[in-house]
Predict the structure.
Amino acid sequence: MSEMQCEICGAEISGSPCRIVIDSSSLEVCKSCARFGKPEDKWSPVTRKMVPVERAFSVRKPKPRDRFKDLVEIVPDYGARIRDARESQGMTPEQLGVRIKEKATLIKKIEREEIVPEDEIRKKLERELKIKLTETTGEEKSRSSGGARGLTLGDIANIKRK
């Protein structure tokens, strides 16, 4: 059985994926990204005849802008940098977890590069360990450096939190 990847963040999904709907698109996502949409209904009682001909709202098109212009990309060796900085300060993953208010298991997974840290966690790690984990890339580099995983919806979408 092949492992599935979350269609928003690209993380490996352990167990069964959650099916959610965002703007009428059905996605298979991990449990942490499921909060961005509504659970998908197994069936829809609405028939084609009942769909209104005109929409009651207008769709605003986003202003065209270069989403890749100031893309911040995490460095490829982020796990080793975090581990080296933590060890140089004489901390265990548990002690670092207490200081940044995160679980030690999460820190261990980030150090093994099983998980790419979210921006909030990345900033806490950078601040606590006094290291830099990102690099600003230009448009050419971001499009060509998809890596083995490739781009996911989460890499380019701006998700509005409620």
The two ends are 35 Å apart (CA to CA). The CA atoms of residues 19 and 42 lie 10 Å apart. Residues 1-41+145-162 form one domain.
